[in-house]
Amino acid sequence: MSKRTASVLMLSAILAQLKSKGAKVVAPLVVIIGLLSGLTGILGINLMDLIKSTGILGAGQSNTVTVLVHGVGGKDQLVLPSRGFVKLIYGDAIVSEQINNEGEATFKQIPDDFFQAHSNVEIIFEDPEGEPYRAVHIDSTYKLNKGEYLSLPVKLHGLDRIYGVIRDFETSDPIDSVRVSVQGTASYSNQFGEFELIIPPDKQQQFQTIHALKEGYETYQYSNLPVQTGRETPILLKPKTN
User: Fold this and answer.
1) Which residues contact 73 (CB under 8 A, 6 or more apart)?
2) What is the Cα–Cα distance from 56 to 157, expressed in whole angstroms?
3) Distance CA 57, CA 48 (A)
4) Please, which residues have CB within 8 angstroms of residue 125's CB and are 6 or more apart in sequence?
5) What is the pLDDT of residues 37-86, one digit of tens each?
6) Spatial distance between the Cα atoms of 210 and 188, rounded to a whole number of angstroms
7) pLDDT tens, 75-84?
8) What band does 11 get if pLDDT is binned at 50, 70 and 90?
9) Strand pairing class (65-70; 148-156)
10) Looking at the chain, which runs of residues are DSSP E strands?
11) CB within 8 A of 42, min separation 6: which ones?
């Protein structure tokens, strides 16, 4: 084997290693290619032909997509960083990635089918701890492009309703006609002590303060009630003492 052939094989091996490292070696790659250009000039080798033969120029066109998850308040309103998961769904195929501390989920090995012109990909966001965050545009689908950076606005669902049962603190009997209110929106309990509050969109929030009032009972207040859990809210009213 001639020195020239050995040099070509060595350079090819170096470039192949750089390709396998991906985008993390972009800066070192620029420096090394500068050095290699001098050596290839001495050896009479065309550096660009050598680089093309390794396929390194296509390394940046891998099947990657990054999704930024944020709240309806804008892209700076990160939602569940380092906790939530983003899923890409096409047909029966699903790929999932956890978002990082900057609110991004980076997919590095997406199947080619996801990038076809006819492919409509669904993107969903999930919390492993169960908080009901959903994409703002639930029914939307996306046509993905390799290397794309997407924005996914999400919001908590289940903030429009509070329900429960009101009982006497001492007897546990249900109490009817109790006025229950949140931010001025009110409802009354029925004969079984059951109540339901429908909260208008402009007053919906993750935590609410609920009030319950009936003559003969002490006024009830519960602050920081987590609405999004969707659980029944029990209320116990204490009778007033003379």
Assistant:
1) none
2) 45
3) 10
4) 69, 79, 84, 85, 86, 87, 133, 134, 135, 152, 154
5) 665 566 565 555 555 444 444 444 578 999 999 988 899 999 889 999 99
6) 13
7) 999 988 999 9
8) low
9) parallel
10) 65-70, 85-90, 93-98, 104-107, 121-126, 133-135, 141-142, 148-156, 161-168, 179-182, 185-188, 194-198, 207-213, 220-226, 233-237
11) none
Q: What is the DSSP string of 144-156?
A: --TTEEEEEEEEE
Distance between CA atoms of residues 186 and 239, nearest Å: 21
User: pTM of the predicted model, to two decimals?
Assistant: 0.56
Residue 156: partners with Cβ closer than 8 Å, 6 or more residues away: 131, 132, 133, 206, 228
Helix (H) or strand (E) holding 52: helix 47-54
Q: Which domains does the chain have, with CATH numbers?
A: 3-59 (no CATH), 65-156 (2.60.40.1120), 161-237 (2.60.40.1120)
Amino acid at 89: I
Model pLDDT, residue 48: 53
What is the structure's pLDDT at 189? 96
Cα–Cα distance for residue pair 220/132, rounded to 1 Å: 28
